[in-house]
Write a structure and sequence with these properties.
Elements (H helix, E strand, L loop, with lengths): L2 H28 L13 E2 L5 E3 L6 H10 L11 E2 L4 E3 L2 E2 L11 E5 L2 H4 L9 H12 L5 E4 L7 H12 L4 E8 L6 H6 L1 H12 L4 H37 L5 E5 L25 H17 L6 E5 L8 H4 L8 H19 L1
Helix pairs in contact: 1-7, 1-8, 4-11, 5-8, 7-8, 8-9
Length: 345
Amino acid sequence: MGPIVVFVLVFLICAELFARAYLLHQSKKRYHNSDPKPPIATDAVDSEGTISGEISKEKEQFKVLDIQSRTKDPLGSCPEFAGTWLTIDHGKRRTTDTPYGSPSRVLCLGGSTTFCGDVADEHTWPSVLQRYLNRQCSRVVVVENLGRMGATASNRLQYLRKAIVTNDVAAVILLFGVNDAGWVQLRDLQGLSLPIRQLVTSGLGMSRFSYRFLGGPIGRRCGRDASMNTVNEIKHTAYWLSERNIPLIAVLQPYYWSGYPLPKQLTVGNSSPFQIRVDFLHALKSAYETYGSELLRIPNVVFHNFQSVLDTARETAYVDWIHLNTIGCAEIGGRIGQVTEQVLS
């Protein structure tokens, strides 16, 4: 290998490192104020609950996403929408089977995995939770779905404190994890370094080296920083709710790659719904380790780690590597129902 080739390789490595370090520094400033674009599923579950194939742009969740993207307030409620299988009424995704005239509400917060845009109204996990509590809980409550596509836990908790808590709230449930693991920061890292990755991928293979060895440290740092920000937000909200005698149930969500070693193949530019960038996986691992240790120390938080609850059913429970189909929603809704029943009793 000649000196010119060595020089080019060293230059590309240094440029990649500089680009990632610079953009990481910039993205840390924007984390709390960002309204990230959510990961979009490539498969859907229709109103009968069966997997239908690739989502077209005419599907209802894309219409909602398009309307939502035009709103200027990332802490606001969801836009109104009336579809055939997806309904948003008064800023909330419709929960079915709600009892009439109940004086108490259970609020479900989260991102797209709480909004459940891939399944019909009756199959979202908040609707499953509603039916579970109707059968098993002695207390009559109305479950409200306050998930918003692309939202972080910090977005939703700030929205909670800003707008919606009243005296009739019996409990608050937060499903969180993936959007709070630093992928917003990692997405920002793609900008400047993308031309470099495209250049070296054309023949030198440096992009593979970059993601295998440089993506790990960068991903872990993003995950650690984002998770500590979220832990502080949960701690602040838990104290705020405890002053109002409202319990906070924090549930760490599952994802498809939980329990798997890092995949060998690179997935940059690959549209397969079950593939994920290596640096994303490093961020997830780091963030989930932080959540598992830190949230157990926060008083006034009922914390449950559901990271691995779908590992044995991953081939049938997911639409993509994060979003659940009707089978996954039924499992998660039932498990959250057991926790919520104990809290309300």
